[in-house]
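Long-time lurker, first post. I've been practising inverse folding by hand and with some scripts of my own, and I keep getting stuck on stretches where the structure tokens seem ambiguous. Below is the full token string for one chain I'm working on. Before anyone asks, I'm not after the true native sequence, just a reasonable design that respects the backbone. If someone could post their per-position residues I'd love to compare against what I wrote down in my notebook.
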């Protein structure tokens, strides 16, 4: 059965917070870990540099930091006319990934206007099993002002390279992150390179979690049974560009985690937990209001940070813009343990036995 996968978009402007999510709850991806793009963009930047070359360089960035193989054929293949029409799916499906810089998306406007739109599609089996993405057209909004540059985002001038990184991420099967400045954030930000969490999303989606530098080792369950759940996380003082364990009390920190649940748990009602262990052994758990409550070791008494229908990847923003000195804290050591449960399995907990550790000193 041919099932059409959904679309993904990139918003134009704005600043926001790191993490990854999967585009398709079935964790759909390119089964052979390889994509071939037909890129024949003729436009150039204001100083004459080829957008086609910039796209190839963005593809090479993904390829060099993951196990994805990206081939570029420098040939224009119209994503609108060379496709198999499919009702409700712009451009249809032809099993090819075409790149275009155009005023419309096959006669439709850019919904906003968006800077660009990626349309990964293909066939997939129903249910939370890996299916395949076989088609992945990318449309860049030709009505906007494009250039190629590094560094902070400039008002009204879009950097083709970072938007390419973002759209390729969609075609590979990533969705938007809720965390701030990363390539897979829905908004164009100051991030002009792939961040560790962007890489982790692909590493886990393509079943090479060992390539994720934010992996929290030792996934296990309270009952002691094996689990395929994967936990990532870390603390960052630069909006996700790098993750560290040692910070000064005057730095502004974000602590983030992503929980990739067992495939059989996707779509089930569950709870996400963050348990903090202080150096003196005090236990705290994050509650749904964002505060931290003292707890005992009785897991049935833990407040949950969030109750939700579990997605393939579930992001948790544990601490945002925390400046310890502002709270009168000069020196502290913290360990954050990440877990989830299913409402249908009282007493069972899936967690990473390695915590996110951070030390704050004056
Ligand atoms: Zn997007």
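-- Answer (accepted) --
I ran through it position by position. Result:
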């Amino acid at each position: 059965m041919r099932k059409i996968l959904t679309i993904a978009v990139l918003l134009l402007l704005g600043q926001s917070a790191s993490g990854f999510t999967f585009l398709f709850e079935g964790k759909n991806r390119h089964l052979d870990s390889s994509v071939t793009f037909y890129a024949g963009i003729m436009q150039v930047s204001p100083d004459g540099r080829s957008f086609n070359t910039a796209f190839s360089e963005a593809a090479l960035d993904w390829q060099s930091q993951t196990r994805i193989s990206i081939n570029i054929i420098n040939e224009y293949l119209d994503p609108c006319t060379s496709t198999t029409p499919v009702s409700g799916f712009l451009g249809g499906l032809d099993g090819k990934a075409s790149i275009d810089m155009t005023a419309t998306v096959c006669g439709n406007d850019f919904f906003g206007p968006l800077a660009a739109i990626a349309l990964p599609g293909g066939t997939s089996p129903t249910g939370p099993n890996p299916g395949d993405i076989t088609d992945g057209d990318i449309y860049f909004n030709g009505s906007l002002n494009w250039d190629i540059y590094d560094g902070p985002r400039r008002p009204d001038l879009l950097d083709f390279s970072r938007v390419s990184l973002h759209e390729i991420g969609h075609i590979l099967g990533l969705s938007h992150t809720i965390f701030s400045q990363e390539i897979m954030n829905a908004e164009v930000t100051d991030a002009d390179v792939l961040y560790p969490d962007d890489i982790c999303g692909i590493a886990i989606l393509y079943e090479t979690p060992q390539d994720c530098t934010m992996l929290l080792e030792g996934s296990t369950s309270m009952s002691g049974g094996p689990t395929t759940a994967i936990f990532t996380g870390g603390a960052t003082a630069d909006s996700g560009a790098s993750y560290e364990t040692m910070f000064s009390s005057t730095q502004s920190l974000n602590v983030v985690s992503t929980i990739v649940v067992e495939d059989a748990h996707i779509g089930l009602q569950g709870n996400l937990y963050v348990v903090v262990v202080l150096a003196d052994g005090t236990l705290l758990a994050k509650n749904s209001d964002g505060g931290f409550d003292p707890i005992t070791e009785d897991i049935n008494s833990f407040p949950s940070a969030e109750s939700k229908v579990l997605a393939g990847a579930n992001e948790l923003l544990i601490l945002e813009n925390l400046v310890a000195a502002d709270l009168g804290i000069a020196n502290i050591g913290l360990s954050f343990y990440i877990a989830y449960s299913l409402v249908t399995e009282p007493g069972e907990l899936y967690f990473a036995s390695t915590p996110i550790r951070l030390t704050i000193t004056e």
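A couple of notes from the structure itself: The helical segments are 51-65, 160-172, 196-205. The two ends are 61 Å apart (CA to CA). Happy to go over any region you disagree with.
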